[in-house]
């Protein structure tokens, strides 16, 4: 069973590549897995937000999870997204599917749309935690779910349940994040959920990032994270300067709209998304191409 220390470094929220017919491109998915591992990332996250999971059928999710698991072949730890806004349905999905249980840890986002209060969030996670022996990474992303999990709720969950091992924090609130880091129990760690805030979050005690940008730039993102974790802030700041603009632009028209542009330029995938997401505008494509050329020069 993995612990928080096994998720130290650079994790990647892996995209789902599609063919021209909008079917899952499994050859490209295998290519991505090997590209990321060869690029030095520390673990992979399947079926997160960046994977466009909301647009995938259950059968497609199973096939993707199996593909990533088999292609990884134990080389790095694997985390799988398994959240939702119906607590019992989340529990049932985890309990009834071996393709979820074969992963090392679950990533559970706060419920979207319902907008529960803090006690509702606590009870949601409590019910899920008590239904499984798998380690759980909390995921606080209020920009997508419409609800922010407070530092107090995150800390209460971390203190009450040993198999809650970390939180992917994407609130952007460094005061809240700092409070969690300062008061957390020893078995629990904080992971950046925002590429652009990775360096400052590591500086105050986070153990790394679950990155979108690393889908296209695994070596560069890993270099930033590793430098920061070893206290080489000169190198980390240098990499932050190089990556910051491009890390902001990839989200300008939604996620994974921008990162798929970069991945196509790398020859990894075809730049296809499923509705309601659309391909990047010509303006954004040109801006990302410029950033990419600057990065390569």
From TrEMBL:
Q: Which GO terms describe its cellular component?
A: cytosol
Reactions that this protein is recorded to catalyse:
L-aspartate 4-semialdehyde + pyruvate = (2S,4S)-4-hydroxy-2,3,4,5-tetrahydrodipicolinate + H2O + H(+)
A GO molecular function assigned to this protein is: 4-hydroxy-tetrahydrodipicolinate synthase activity
Which one Pfam family would you cite for this protein? Answer: DHDPS
Q: Which InterPro entries match?
A: Aldolase_TIM (IPR013785), DapA (IPR005263), DapA-like (IPR002220), Schiff_base-form_aldolases_AS (IPR020625)
- Family the UniProt entry places it in: Belongs to the DapA family.
| Record's keyword terms, sorted | Amino-acid biosynthesis, Cytoplasm, Diaminopimelate biosynthesis, Lyase, Lysine biosynthesis, Schiff base
- Localized where? Cytoplasm
Any one GO BP annotation for this protein: lysine biosynthetic process via diaminopimelate
Question: In which broad location class does this protein mainly occur, judging by the first location in its UniProt entry?
Answer: cytoplasm
Q: Which pathway does UniProt place it in?
A: Amino-acid biosynthesis; L-lysine biosynthesis via DAP pathway; (S)-tetrahydrodipicolinate from L-aspartate: step 3/4
User: Which residues carry out catalysis?
Assistant: 139 (proton donor/acceptor), 168 (schiff-base intermediate with substrate)
Asked if Cell membrane is a keyword of the record, the answer is: no
| HAMAP family the record matches | DapA
Self-association and partners = Homotetramer; dimer of dimers.
Enzyme Commission numbers on file = 4.3.3.7
Q: Which NCBIfam families match?
A: dapA
Which CDD domains does the record cross-reference, listed alphabetically?
Answer: DHDPS (cd00950)
Q: Where does pyruvate bind?
A: 50, 210
Task: Name the residues annotated as site: Part of a proton relay during catalysis.
Answer: 49, 113
Q: What is this protein called?
A: 4-hydroxy-tetrahydrodipicolinate synthase
User: Per its UniProt record, what Gene3D superfamilies does this chain match?
Assistant: Aldolase class I (3.20.20.70)
């Amino acid at each position: 069973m993995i612990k928080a220390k096994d998720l130290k470094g650079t994790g990647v929220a892996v995209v789902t590549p599609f063919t021209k017919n909008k079917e899952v491109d499994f050859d490209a998915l295998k290519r991505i897995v090997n590209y990321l591992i060869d690029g030095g990332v520390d673990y992979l996250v399947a079926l997160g937000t960046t994977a466009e999971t909301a647009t995938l059928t259950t059968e497609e999710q199973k096939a993707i999870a199996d593909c990533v698991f088999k292609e990884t072949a134990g080389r790095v730890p694997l985390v799988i997204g398994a959240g939702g806004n119906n607590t019992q349905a989340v529990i049932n999905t985890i309990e009834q599917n071996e393709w979820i249980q074969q992963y090392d840890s679950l990533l559970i986002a706060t419920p979207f749309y319902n907008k529960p209060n803090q006690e509702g969030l606590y009870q949601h996670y409590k019910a899920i935690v008590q239904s499984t022996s798998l380690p759980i990474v909390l995921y606080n992303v209020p920009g997508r779910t419409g609800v922010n999990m407070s530092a107090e709720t995150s800390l209460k969950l971390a203190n009450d349940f040993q198999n809650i091992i970390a939180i992917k924090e994407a609130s952007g609130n460094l005061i809240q994040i700092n409070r969690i880091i300062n008061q957390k129990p020893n078995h629990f760690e904080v992971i950046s959920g925002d590429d652009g805030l990775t360096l400052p979050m590591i500086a105050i005690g986070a153990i790394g990032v679950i990155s979108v940008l690393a889908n296209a730039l695994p070596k560069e993102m890993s270099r930033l994270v590793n430098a920061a974790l070893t206290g080489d802030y000169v190198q980390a700041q240098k990499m932050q300067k190089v990556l910051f603009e491009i890390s902001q632009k990839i989200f300008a028209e939604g996620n994974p709209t921008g990162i798929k542009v970069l991945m196509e330029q790398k020859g990894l995938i075809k730049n296809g998304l499923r509705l309601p997401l659309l391909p990047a505008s010509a303006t954004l494509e040109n801006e990302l191409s410029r950033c990419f050329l600057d990065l390569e020069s």
